[in-house]
Amino acid sequence: MKEGLKGNVIFHALPYAIFISGFTILGLFGGFVLGNMLGGSTVGFVFSIPLTFLGFFLALFIAYRIVKEKFSIC
Predict the structure, then answer these.
(1) What is the pLDDT of residue 47?
(2) Model's pTM, two decimal places?
(3) How far is CA 55 from the centre of its chain?
């Protein structure tokens, strides 16, 4: 792959990577906060796992929809 094209791909993918990371981090810390408010550190850990995955897959789905609309992928 040519160097110029490789750099171009990185700059196109970077906003989506930051978007997905942000939602994942929000799910992680949101789960800890919600769990700690409801019962303690164990509950925080239990809430953080599903909310982390929810944030990741929600952001992945949103990014997919944006890219699909932007680049007219089938």
Answers:
(1) 87
(2) 0.78
(3) 6
